[in-house]
Batch of 2 targets.
Target 1
Amino acid sequence: MSVEEFASTRRGRRGRGAKKEETSHREVNYRQLRNPFPNMDVFSADEAENMHKSALTILQDMGMRVLHEDARKIFAAGGAKIDGEMVYIGQDIVDAAIASAPKSITCCAGARERDVILELGSLVFQAGAGAPHATDLERGRRPGSARDYIEYLQLTHHFDVFQMVSPQVEPQDVDIHLRHYFTTEAQMTWSDKFPFTFSRGTPQVMDCFEMIRDFRGLSDEEFQAAPHNYTIINTNSPRTLDIPMAQGLIDFAKYGQMSIVTPFTLMGAMAPITVAGAITLSHAEALAAITLTQLVNPGAPVCYGTFTSNVDMKSGAPAFGTPSHFQASLAAGQLARKTGLPWRSAAGSAANMNDIQAANENQMGLWGCLMAGATVVIHAAGWLEGGLTVSYEKLITDAEVLNMVAELCAGTTATADDIGLENAISQVEPQGHFFAAPQTMARYNSQFYEPVVHDYANFGTWTERGSVDANHRATKIWKDIVAAEAKPKIDESKLGQLQDFIAKRTAEGGAPPES
């Protein structure tokens, strides 16, 4: 199914059941957030330094297995020692790479007001990503489809608290050699946020670069001067960088686009069972991948990343939102800050439905990221089953929490008007109330956060309204958003050129992923 085919099936239903937009008197900015919380450490400074040195020892003495021949040649040209597929990277090479990598990255979205600055202290959220399945209360759990991809994109575009487009859900009803055309066109037409591109081989990446460049009306030089899309690179823990991921690092660095390097280490499975051991290994793998980007193109935008949690030792299944997951995020923050680079961490849930377990796990993981000072928090909403499924309802209920975190980012003030000696406290007699105080009357429509899905009605009122729980309220909310079919303004001539390009490349056979 193409994006145009999907849209044509929806035009007859435009606006049906859509909730009328209410005018808010609150002025909020969830697009450029700063983390207001002090960094929290789990290890002492000496322990963290020893972990960093241990990671450098791993790279120099134990090495990384690099399956990509050209990547090994790049490492060799940069001074690394090569023995077959093993690459041994000295500290001087790593230090030079960290020094050349930019510490602040301006990510260019489709609209300038959507641009995102990634640096230590900034805060960006992404929805749950990369799941093969989608679920909601009305249609149940199912393989991800083109419809799911676009609807999920509509939902994440609707909420400003998601500042970047995530890898979302796999549209499995679109052939893999054509899927990158569908996902890129969908991102260009349904959102003007900073887009995502999978690294599934150079031909697909080059197609995506060309589509984004031309749709944005950029020259080659303008496209390469700043990141206009990003990818996520996962190492194969322990200590392996495979062919597609190495090629992705090379392609994105060569063209000045951003890679988020993310070793996915599970304590007791692909990493040591301890927090210290798992994060040390993850740190080594991240440094190796970051080094490759800088050997390709010094100054190429790259984001440090980690995703470390533990497994359930009874079943071997990944677990998220655990105390160990929280501690691992804190430890990752300590090591990321040694590089000075913006960095990515993750929330998430292993629950099978949007229930209290899912909420607890996601919030525990989220607060680990916030206390660790993560720049980008991925899987911040909607993720179930350890990433096998994204839930429409969970995206809505999690977005509520992210909105409240965003409110905390704005802080509060204590001016004379805020304290209210003249316009509030002095106006109310003992045992009186402040409902009619001048301060209250001036601020009642703007002072407090307006909930999306939470219901503050008392039990009697809630019962009279049908006793609808948060899950089912979330269903109505996502359905209203999808039915509204809100889109950013699109240059129709650019859209036509994009669709012509896709038709031409499809007729030529598309671009199969490379392995």
Note: The longest helix spans residues 275-296.
Target 2
Amino acid sequence: MTSGRPDIPVEQRSTARTEAGTVELPPTVLGRPAPRWLTATELCHSAAAHPAVLLIDGLIVASAFRYMGTTRGIALLGGTIFALISPLCGLSAHRTSVQAQGIRWYMKPLAVTCAAMVAFVVLFGPMGLTGIRTVAALLRSAVLLISFRWFLWGIIVIARRRELGLRPTLVIGTHARVNELAAELAANKKVGLRFAAGYTPTLPDSQAVQDGHAQAFSLLDRNEIDHVLLINDGIDESVFREFVTWADDRRGYTLVLPLADIVRHGSRYHVGRFPVVPLPIGLSRNGLIAKRCLDVAVALALLVLTAPLMLVIAAAIRFGDHNRVFFRQDRVGKHGEVFSLLKFRTMFGSPDEYGEADAHWAVDSLGGGAAAEPALDRQTALGRVLRRWDLDELPQLFNVLRGDMSLVGPRPERVGYVARFAAAIDGYDDRHRVRPGMTGWAQINGLRGQTPLGLRTTFDNDYVDHWSFGLDIRILASTLPAIVKLPPPNLDRMLSRRAQPGPPAPDHTGRRAQRP
């Protein structure tokens, strides 16, 4: 196992123990971090589903329409339609450096997007756009877009040959294959990856395997690894499954096929001479876009519909309870980022004066320690009504619009509790792979309020692992009936049913496999 921090420009060489003695592993070249201009260039070249990239592509298409003699308004309309259609057709998507080598990968999704745009114009016929003019403009657009990507790729290649922006990579496989991949990455810098660490679970020395296993997860947990290469040759499938289980959308995962000479020419992606298969991890970029669009559309609609009710609640709190209307509290969101959660105020006083209202539940969830003193019941009469019907959470629609939260996802927890919960409950940190939500899979299954945190964590992680757009719709549709019925949680029934929208059920503790 070799490792190193990506921000130190040194070269290291490590060893691993075997029955034959000490074996030298490939050197770890730590390289230099990517400057911002290179990151922006890579985003544009990979046609990332980013607003700035969509804007640039839309302007290029608009310029082609303008060149064909259309008015400025029609040209902008053409560029806007192209920008909106491209994520749906797979042109604008999340791609790792392995998937965005050269420009050949760009041809097929570009052709699909152009065909979809022609079909849209023919079927709906926006004013001033005709099928023939659209085809001519799109042909010119394709030339411009491909030339633009080709130019960007040239800049990226020059930067990578100077070891700028090479992503630190963990290679998992047999000792011989790890050495081969390290050599390929050193010789083919255009891929954009650099060998940072190797983990070989097949070493005869079990202690060396345990050390390598712990070090690999340590690098991943500290976000010192941007890409993971899994070599499908002599490695048990359970090893891959273990690493992919804790994957998230910040990191790329790629399966390396060892049959290079047999399948090389039929493979779409390569790392040097090795054909590879990029693995989709977590929510895809298209899925994230669809989820965000749903959040914004539904949140805006709900704000319009509930505005009169929110005004009445605000007046009742201000003039009836003589209290401040809103309560802000720091919560932990996606990737551990802290944000300010907004709620209607339902209690008098503050936690600083009287303590956290659910401190006793938090201690019980940690499974040990001295029992906390039951907190004073600080709920106002109006507050009890608001909390019974979850009306106190309506201001969180503003959090959704800001991007701090989603409509559906794991409930966010307070900053002071997260580190303690993560240390006591396996998989708790995995909930932070997505934005927290106003409602979620755990909530519609009765796990609301002061319910077992281990079981809630299992439901939350199962939601992330099996996410789909349809599942979000299903949870949103089930939220109001769940609030109206509000059945007391039947833990025996929950433990006997399947927690996730997919197959296996959680164990009796609600915990996942032991993490190193």
Note: Residues 1-30, 494-500, 502-516 have pLDDT under 50 and may be disordered.
